[in-house]
Amino acid sequence: MSIQTGDKIPAAKLKVMGEKGPQDITTEELFNGKKVVLFAVPGAFTPGCSITHLPGYIVNADKIKAAGVDTIVCMSVNDAFVMDAWGKSQNAEELLMLADGNGDLTKALGLEMDATGFGMGSRSKRFAMIVDNGTVSHLAVEPAGGVDVSAAEKILALL
């Protein structure tokens, strides 16, 4: 069963690229006492993610933060090296590019998908959520193949 509006974000560790390499960051550090927009993509550097989903958040980052958001997080079931390289290639300086390398948070959220048919293993569904102090206040999960309900513009309109 997937996480729902009103649920608390489960405890998990993710990876972020630091000055000396990948570093742990917990969901508690990310969400407690903050308003966060978290969006997840099936894979870094994939067409829908690189052409549509991530760029929308980059272009709208200032507006999203002006609406009271402390952090905009892009998460994928990739490693921290890939997420860092993808963020740099997309000029995503205003976003926190997080790696859920083993899919631990994705599984805990109940938002994993089987992408073995594409040679990608277990990945995250495409989704976006607004999290207030660790509690989900809005969740938008995309149907397969779409970038609509989780697009930056849709999330911005809800802030």
UniProtKB/TrEMBL annotation:
The active site is at 49 (cysteine sulfenic acid (-soh) intermediate). Pfam families: Redoxin (PF08534). Residues 3-159 form the Thioredoxin domain. It comes from the Bacteria. GO terms for cellular component: cytoplasm. GO terms for molecular function: thioredoxin peroxidase activity. Keywords: Antioxidant, Oxidoreductase, Peroxidase, Redox-active center. This is Glutathione-dependent peroxiredoxin. It comes from Zhongshania antarctica.
